């Protein structure tokens, strides 16, 4: 069903092959903020996405701009056999990126029927298949999806004039008043091509299909369709048709007062074009098969954690809401992030998560304060490595966590989005709880008291790392800290 590389990934994950822990180090930063510099809200990064090859990276910001970066390191450049020989003598260099171009994807708008302002903020970016050397990508704000083509265009200039300048005076009047007097000096213009420059062009706009804010877009593996999801509906689009979409999931009740949950994220399966998953605010994930019916009211599988014994608090359902889901590259495992934890699911086993990773367990005593300042509603994203052995997600104080997700792995790392990612002393966090183990490992929760070994008071709730992405082929993580894009390699 899958290619040889994917099979190797599955075998490695199933066998529990323990690779040594990765040593993360700073790689690059773009848009670094200087000390005391105030960041404008429109410059805050709101979306990050690598393309399928890993050669390009796109970011979107609150100002509606999309910025593209291109891989530029020596490993990616031409070199053939000589490069291969050099790599046997020296360690493989980590990927390096350079700025490519940027363009204004969305502008602020106003819905006059609903008296609603539509901000230009980019919610999601997804890369599409390349063709004829051009890059294609989808970007969306709250209401409108756009399909962009970015292609290098050579700049052509006229480097020679038609006539000898010495033979003309004034407004181009030929000397001696005779038009053909200097006919021998008449020359054809010479057009030369200078360096190429990337040009972005909007190919299609997909408007007016969502009554609520779009939270997800996802490409299908067939290369022809994609989905867009808002709080209550998921629509299926064809890339070539912008004026029509098909509603495939609708959770809106007849009476809005009966509404008990909303859709929080949706993602196509990476290899099966008929399968997709979507998560809800109640912490559940549903896997649906488009072959079952046109409107997928029923799901093929339901993934949710069994109710834990003990009393529920006011915050139980709030922190259970899933903010992001990601399929692993081979499609068997699914990663989900709620407010407190990162969970790994096996789509062949719907009894519960394979592993649960505590991201910031030390915040539990502070949930009331987090509710008061609305931080409890922050939507943290997650990502999984190309080989499926590790996963990463963000936290507060511009921290992000990396976990080993292969069976039996105890690898964990806490890094800060700065030039010195390991400068903070972070205590040993809670390790994953496996299916069937009701009691957590002794001492793990008490050890994770907070950053710097003190308490959650040391965290800065205004600096949160919500958006990050893992390179599809390398151990490289790109993450957004305000208006800065940081990259870390291992």
Brief summary:
The chain has helices at residues 4-15, 80-89, 316-320, 367-372, 444-447, and strands spanning 25-30, 45-50, 56-61, 65-71, 97-104, 109-111, 116-118, 124-127, 135-140, 145-158, 168-169, 173-174, 191-206, 216-219, 225-229, 233-238, 241-250, 263-268, 275-280, 285-289, 301-303, 324-327, 333-337, 341-346, 355-358, 382-384, 390-394, 399-404, 412-416, 433-434, 468-470, 476-481, 484-489. It has 490 residues and is mainly beta.
3D structure, described in words:
- The protein is mostly beta strands and 490 residues long.
- Helices cover 8% and strands 37% of the residues.
- The strands form nine sheets. A five-stranded antiparallel sheet has the order 22-23-24-25-30, with no helix packed on it. Strands 1-33-32-31 form a four-stranded antiparallel sheet, with no helix packed on it.
- It is globular and about 100 Å long.
List keywords for this structure.
8% helix, 5-stranded antiparallel sheet, 490 residues, mainly beta
Give the class from helix and strand content and strand pairing: mainly beta
| Number of helices in the DSSP assignment | 5
What ranges have pLDDT less than 50 throughout 5 or more consecutive residues?
A: 1-16, 75-79, 425-431, 433-455
Average of per-residue pLDDT values: 83
Q: The biggest beta sheet, please?
A: 5 strands, antiparallel
Distance between the termini: 31 Å
Tally the beta strands: 33
User: In one word, what is the shape?
Assistant: globular
Q: Approximately how much beta-strand content do the residues carry?
A: 35-45%
Question: In order across it, which strands form the biggest sheet?
Answer: 22-23-24-25-30
Q: What is the rounded Rg?
A: 26 Å
**Share of helical residues:** under 10%
